[in-house]
Amino acid sequence: MRHWIAALAVGLALPAGAAEIGDDGLHKAPWMVETFKDLREDLAEATAEGRRLMVIVEQRGCIYCTKMHEEVFSQPDIAATLGTDYFVVQLNMFGDVEVVDFDGEILSEKAAVRKWGLNFTPLLLFFPEEVPEGVTAEDAAVATVPGAFGAETTRNMLSWVLEKGYAGDEPFQVYHARKLNGG
């Protein structure tokens, strides 16, 4: 009985936008896709579904990850975009699950994160529909977003990637400023 009361007290103490935490200590969202973490297969599946591959790197206890999940990813339109237009694969910055990089190298999550030179969480990596053979995830990414950002920045980044802004002559910062100014 005491355990039930303690669990209820903890549940009631969580903020309204609290994100679910998995057994691995990372945030879980319905728009995340559980895969074998073979980025080539994930990209092929995402592209076949008409979605864009996004990898999110997080770590246990990350206060900025919590901020993103509770304040940004919980926004209904952002959650809908992530669930409909993106194929989101989560990696644990210090995890041991095997990942297959686009270049075919098999390594742990933590080794992949080191290989790609990633230092922040949360970190979002966005990929094109096709990645040339032999290219690493770090080199293939069309956009990398390190750290926590607000809803407008995140919303605009998601749109910029879907619109393939990275292939044009308007950098994200200019796109973002134009969108903030009603353009």
From TrEMBL:
The keyword ATP-binding does not apply. It holds the Pfam family Thioredoxin_2. Residues 1-18 form the signal peptide. Keywords: Signal. Residues 47-130 form the Thioredoxin-like fold domain. InterPro entries: SoxW, Thioredoxin-like_fold, Thioredoxin-like_sf. This is Thioredoxin-like fold domain-containing protein. It comes from Jannaschia pagri.
